[in-house]
Structures are given as structure tokens and as C-alpha cells.
Amino acid sequence: MMIASNFKTNYTRAKADSFIKSIQACMTRTKSEQEVRIFAPFTALNSFDEVKNLKVGAQNFYPVQNGSFTGEIGFEQLEEFGIETVLIGHSERRHILKESHAFIAQKYDFAKARDAEIIYCVGEPAEVRMQGIDAVMSYLWEQFEGIDIHYEKLIIAYEPVWAIGTGLSARLEDIEEVLERLREKLSKPLLYGGSVKVENIESILHVKECDGVLVGTASWNEEAFCEMIRIADSVKK
Ligand SMILES: O=C[C@H](O)COP(=O)(O)O
């Protein structure tokens, strides 16, 4: 399974470095079999020692190799550190940073052309959820328009917007229903994100069709993130 941490706009370079080393040690100590990803801020990217199944990724990038785009980070700056996994479509970029779907699809195509692993995030806001499952699925499928769902290195993260950073995860039956509906058309790994924590990760990982989690807030504590990896190792699917 995949257990991913998104630092968002948290941690200095020094703190991120110590966090990553601590998770490397945790995975070595526990002989973890999980695929672990850590999405650190740009300023914390570095050439980290290789640890089996642990990759540091980028939360964002501008879809160019390099060029004149003041303040942006292109792929050349990621490749310098061997970064080969990226987040695309996170709801904070869609809703707070106002990324259009056309721009997200452009980023997707760019990362795909660079052969990067893509964690592609989709999720509905509360007002859509209140309209029921069919409205939720129509909203989610729109977020796949122009996205190559057959890309070999695609991983999908279903993150209901209303469950992100609220401490209130979606109900297990709701996660299961959405993942099962996504599975009808998608053959790629399906993650769930939205207030995942030590207390609920085990039950979420047991949800049918759930191949892992993308964790924000609760992963920012290294002991807690290590514990989540350990719990994932104990879940047999
Ligand atoms: O990328 C992670 C998600 O936005 C989930 O964040 P959260 O665990 O703080 O709800």
C-alpha cells in the first residue's frame, strides 16, 4: 500500500531533513513493506539517501523544463534532486490557488511526458456531497476530463474537500462507495485522503478498493507518521 505525507506549507529545510531521516530510520527498523511518499516544500528538497520504497516528492511544479517564469519551479529544478513523484490537482491548488482544470491537465501531460509518478487528487466540496452520490461521481469524473487514466505511473487520491484538515474523515461507507464507483473505470491504485490519523488509518485501509492514504495534518508528527506506516504493515489485504 502507499502511505503518503503532504507537508503542505509546513517545515523548514532543517526540520524536513530531520523528519525524512527519522522516517527512513523507522522504515529500516520496522522493515516496512509500504510504498512511502513524503511531499516536502520546495525549499526542503534535496538528494536524500535511497531507502527502499521511500520517495520524496514535489507538491507542485510549473509545467516547463526551465525558462522565464519568475517565482516558479520547473522540472529541471526537481530533477536536480532526483525528484520523480509529484502531486497534481490537490484541492488547495484547485480552490485556494485557483488552478483551472485546463492548467491541471497541462501539468499532468507535462509530468507524464517526463515519466514522473503522478498522484492525481480529486474530490468534491461539501455542497456537492449534500446532493448525493450521483452528483459526487459526476463532479469527480469531470476532474478526469483530459487526464490519461491509463498512464502507467498514475496513482489517484480521492480527497473530499470537506474532510481535509477538519479532523472529520469521511464515513467508511462513503469512502467505500466512491472508491468502488471509481474502480469501475480506473485500474490504478486508489488512495483516500482527508483527516486520516493514527486512530482511523487501520479501518480506512481495510476499505475495499483502498490502496493507501494521503495524509496531511496527522502526518506532520514523525512518531505518528511512523506509527501509521507500522499499522499499514499490519493490515493484510
Ligand atoms: O494532502 C493531504 C490532504 O489534503 C489531507 O489533509 P489532512 O490529512 O490534513 O486532512
TrEMBL record:
Highest taxon above the source species: Bacteria
Known EC number: 5.3.1.1
Compartment annotation: Cytoplasm
Pfam families in alphabetical order: TIM
InterPro entries reported for this sequence: Aldolase_TIM (IPR013785), TIM_sf (IPR035990), Triosephosphate_isomerase (IPR000652), Triosephosphate_isomerase_AS (IPR020861)
One GO biological process term: gluconeogenesis
GO cellular component entries: cytosol
Family: Belongs to the triosephosphate isomerase family.
PANTHER family recorded: TRIOSEPHOSPHATE ISOMERASE
Description of how the protein assembles with itself and partners: Homodimer.
Name listed for the protein in its UniProt record: Triosephosphate isomerase
Species this protein is from: Sulfurospirillum deleyianum (strain ATCC 51133 / DSM 6946 / 5175)
